[in-house]
Amino acid sequence: GVFLYNHLQQKVRNAEALAQKYKQQQEALSAQLQVVYEHRSRLERSLQKERGEHKKTKEDFLVYKLEAQEALNKEKQDSMNRYGALSSQHKILKNQHDDVKKQLLDLQLQHNSLKLEHRKSLESHSQKLAQLQQERDSEVTNLQDTVFKLREESKLLRKAHQEVHSQLLNAQAQMEEFRQLKEALQKMPGLR
């Protein structure tokens, strides 16, 4: 009985030790499980937050997509309007270009005609100028001859003038002598 009692007591101690060991393992597992639960809870909250942010991002993206589509449509419409305006302006400018090109051709023809007339006129003027230069040279020669003759005549006239002046002075001197003689005669009583 004692042996059986000791044997049973040994088993009880072993069982208690085993129970204590299992209890410690359970507590450790409970702690680990608590950590896992908390981690899971954090993950769920994070996931919920991410879902909310994803939903908000998706809504924002849809709004952005809608706005971008509207902006794109508006830009497309503006581009079409600008293209229409530019196309119309291009047609106007093309017509103006054609008109200017035609005017340029007309002006080139007119320029060529005027150039020809100018060349003819220049040749005619050159001939007239040569003729006028010849006439002028001849006239200058004639004038030089005339000036020479006039100078010679002037010398002769100056000489004649001096002679006349000398004669005049002589005549004046004679007149003075006659006057003095007349006065002297008038003063003489016998000749009165």
Question: How much helix is in the residues?
Answer: over 70%
Average pLDDT: 94
Terminus-to-terminus distance:
238 Å
Unreliable spans: none
Give helix and strand order, one letter per element, not per position: H
Could you characterize the architecture of this molecule?
This protein is mostly helical and 192 residues long. The radius of gyration is 73 Å and the shape is rod-shaped. The model has no long low-confidence stretch (mean pLDDT 94).
What is this entry, summarized?
The protein is mostly helical. It has one helix spanning about 1-185. It is rod-shaped.
What is the element layout, followed by pairings?
Blueprint lengths: L1 H186 L5
Provide the descriptors you would attach to this structure in a database record.
192 residues; mainly alpha; 1 helix
